[in-house]
Amino acid sequence: MRLLPDAPLDARTTLRLGGPARWLAEVADADDARAAVRFAHQSGLPWAILGGGSNTIAADVGYAGVLLHPTGRRIEATERADSVWVRAESGLPWDELVAFAVRRELAGIAALSGIPGQVGAAPVQNIGAYGEQLADVFVSADVLDCVTGKLECWDAERAAFAYRDSAWKRGEEGRWLILAITLKLQPSAFAAARYPDLRQELLDGGADPDRAPLAALRRAVLTVRRRKGMVCDPEIADSRSAGSFFVNPEVPLDAARDAESRLRAAGRLGPDETMPSWPAPALADGSERRKLSAAFLIERSGFRKGQDGPNPRVGLSRRHVLALVHRGGGSAADLLALADTITAQVARQTGISLHREPRLLG
Ligand SMILES: Cc1cc2nc3c(=O)[nH]c(=O)nc-3n(C[C@H](O)[C@H](O)[C@H](O)COP(=O)(O)OP(=O)(O)OC[C@H]3O[C@@H](n4cnc5c(N)ncnc54)[C@H](O)[C@@H]3O)c2cc1C
Questions:
Q1: What is the C-alpha to C-alpha distance for residues 212 and 193, in angstroms, rounded to an integer?
Q2: Structural fold of domain 75-227
Q3: Catalytic residue check, 244
Q4: Domain 2-70 maps to which CATH number in 3.40.630.10, 3.30.43.10, 3.30.390.50, 3.90.76.10?
């Protein structure tokens, strides 16, 4: 275990914001992680987990504790009767795992190309894009209970995945450290693309979107993501973000209808226009819910791509209204103030509460 004092979090988060972590502990395995938690106890400090920092807003004051940062990067593939099980350690960049699967002609995660962050964080919010989500291929995770020091194996039932959510995300901060995950992938050189803009990109490149070679699918995903500024690349303006800042709200049918009529009454929705919405899992009592587009609600509530925040050092991405970006020289407080402005205005215009996707650290 390597302990780094006063580790700057602006250098370790994709938003490039935040003060230092008192300590950052690089942990390669369970023993390292136990030692880091012991160190936190002895120092009377809290601890938390930081992967690639792409879904994290680090507070301007930094984090007054010990951050556990996974570094294990091994991948192992095991052939089974009808599939290949791939186990990857949590410190591996997620996109390297996708590249590995594509190279080995293993289908199941190619549409998740280009998502920043580490493998260990992928199940936490059940990463998803272009019609695929981690839950669809997840077998299990090796997890360290940082309170008891015990190793556990969590299957999909225990992970209790939902849309951009899981038992880890709902659980106690820092308690469960994912050390490795195992995915079930299909030995196939081809996969179908589900999303319209992805299908179009494949057609433009001469590939069959219903049976696209995995490498072509990966290339198409990366091209589409790049266009939307949804990759981390210092060359791309507006790439200092945490990706989508708000999750698409899942609301009761009545709330969806109410939002639509409010927008129509305010002249923010044309007479022949409908508000986009999709079926969402029903509530326990069976009542219907709809998933709404957070981007649509934000735009129709009066925001536009590229708009500056109350402090123009942060703003909305010029490529994607759902991404809040740090333009340089700003602070986490500026960003959170912009998020509050958006949340309040969307609630006023539509009655819908937006929820932040990235966690606030510190
Ligand atoms: C440009 C951009 C595009 C994005 N596009 C997408 C997208 O298409 N789809 C999508 O779903 N997300 C997207 N994201 C969000 C983000 O990349 C994912 O949520 C990613 O999985 C976060 O990984 P990370 O290692 O950076 O997590 P971090 O930000 O370091 O941590 C996020 C959370 O996971 C927890 N965590 C991290 N590692 C572990 C571990 N080993 N064990 C237990 N808990 C852990 C942390 O405690 C924290 O709560 C995007 C982000 C950016 C910046």
A1: 7
A2: 3.30.465
A3: yes
A4: 3.30.43.10
